[in-house]
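=== Structure Prediction Worksheet ===
Name of assembly: unnamed complex
Input type: mixed (protein and possibly other molecules)
Chain count: two
Listed entries:
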Amino acid sequence: MGQHTTIQTLREHRFLFSELVARDFKKKYKRTILGMLWSVLSPLLTLLVMRIVFTQFFGSGMEHYTTYLFCGNLVYSYFNESTSQGMSSLTSNAGIFTKVNVPKYLFLLSKNVQTIINFGITLCVFFLFCLLDGITFTWDFFLLLFPITFLMAFNVGVGLILSALFVFFKDVQYLWSVFTMLLMYMSAIFYTTTDYSHVIQQLFYLNPVYCYITYFRQIVIDGMVPSLGLHALCVGYALLALGIGALIYKRKNHEFLYYV
Amino acid sequence: MSAIIKCEDVSIRYITGDFKDIGIKEYLIRRLTHNYHVTEFWADRHVTFELEPGDMLGIIGSNGAGKSTLLKAISGIMAPTEGWVECNGKISALLELGSGFDGDLTVRENTYLRAAMLGYSRDFVESMYDSIIDFAELQDFQERPFKQLSSGMKSRLAFSIASLVKPEILILDEVLSVGDGAFRKKSEAKMREIINGGATTILVSHSLGQVRSMSNKILWLDHGRQVAFGSNVKGLCDAYQKYLDTKVMPAPEDLPPLDIDVPSPKPAEGKRKEKASDAPGSEKRDVIDLGGVPQNTEAGAVSAKKAKAPFAQRLRSMPRALKITFIAVLLITAVIAVSEARLPAKVQALPQTAQRVLYSDDATGVGVYLWESKLYVFVPREMVEQSGGDMTFYLGVVDSHGYRMSDTFDVNKLANGRFSTDSTEVLVIPMGRYPGYTHVVFGQLADGASSDQVNEDNMGQLLVWGGIYDKAANTGRIIG
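=== Predicted Assembly ===
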């Protein structure tokens, strides 16, 4: 009987979840096709700007530079979009969770569905660019499912932490936008780390976004399976973020409503 | 008959104070200057009551008596600080009408969203949708944005959604005073229908007449304290009216008898739990929050068992998509592990199997091999150790434009793309990075030499050992 009700409740929540996703979609894109197109175009335009700036003005002569750039941009913009939008998921739904008892993480997940779809479309464009850039596709490309899965988990985890923090401190928003900018420069999106000393190269791995980017680059550009250590880092960062986020949500579950 | 809602000695501490809407800086400053004030107060204190299926409880009390907070605890939005709440049924709560709706969505979309929040299934909502709209009398407004509705219309819709479906427990906070006179009559009739259908209802209303005519039990709260609970609706309402008129709280002995015909459901003193954390009710709430099962609650024992379900059972109850993802990730990891494990053997065999041998020195054991567009550099560990851990491999690439770029690789320190076999360090350089190359210059960079200094004339001096590989001719030349 217990089994039955669990499945039943999950089904009920699936309905709520799909309704939340539908609501977020309608609200964000205001029912326009162009709205959706924009969210895919914007990372592409960023890519274009970076490509022009760093090949024409700063003259990076690296081979496959466009793909190198796109790998970084793809991962970073997904991370940035997912976390920045997820931050407000609790506060903007305060009217709901202070009146109805629903699992609060659903709001974040629903926001994430959007960014995942955007990411998926950008990923398709990415593969198109790879083709144009003369990248040979190998079976190893299926391994990209690995960093993608854990990047999603990592983004959800960071989103959980941020959305909870945002309830308590509203200025997290501004700090986060500064932090993500710092993170962008620290993620070796448009430069290579080979010029740095060994110690500094290792320090880059403290940045989770860099790990996911590096995984992408090693598969796509270098055509090699990354080391087990990099796999472990990808999993570790995701589990760490998810764990902390889930813990905060569990601990503070009944405290959020005092702050909104 | 067993209780459908049970509140045992429920106390809820509410906090207010400076913490709202202050930033981190402000928070730290106030903390440091001891100017940070948080006030805690008991919104509800020692509230104990029990309802049976079909009961209609009216909660009375002036503003700030803790009525809404108590309802939040019953619907699971708040957790009691002390004591515990047990609900054995599907709750449909209506706290503050109009909230939880989204102004930008249409009436139809909002109906689905709200129904989803209340925990109904899509099929059920689809089958009930027309009657919900009919009851709310909003047939002509279905595609209108919600914000364009009048407040009366909004309340009507909220009431229709919560009541037309068949809840086991219905919680109404100042709901029945909505709409015009005709709708109020209709909603009261609907309420009676639900109650007669066996639903347990909790009603908060400032209209004493409404409470009087509809309830069969009364809970009187005053500043969070429970003044009285009983089925003597008439007596208690009279006493409350008298209190409102005179502002004198009657002494407990002056209260009318709490119950009329049924024996008083006195709280069982012996069963009181001191701490919320070890009470079965609160433990159950935790389980609910974890599993995200807000409305469908079961007896504490069942839930407690569920929390300790074996791993296999929990795996089985995961959504299918999650299961597939989980298995896929496990499979991928396994594939990786296998391919990683196999690589050193493949690498070890390279001197025999490589497609191109670029450089090989049997005396020192150094070798450079090309295999599947990767460059493998074999250096005996002895040699690396003798170099004091400071050995740099140089790679210069020439393409059809004559452009030459160079990379250096620290043989001893590369974290990725390096394998160690029993006696050899193997450096792996993916040549995919340098498409269209025609010549490769490679070798061990001499101590103190910089990769920028290497050119065709001085390669012999700057490289300890090395060679030039001509891709088109597939020939190599050894330098030094």
